[in-house]
Amino acid sequence: MMFQTIGPDKLNQLRHVRFFKDQSGIEDHMRQQEAIIKPKFNVVLETLEAKLGGKYLASWSTPQGGYFISLNTLPGCAQKVVSRAAAAGVELTSAGATFPYGKDPDDKNIRLSPTFPSLVELKQAMELVALCIELVSAEQEIAKRNC
Question: pTM for the complete prediction?
Answer without folding.
Answer: 0.85
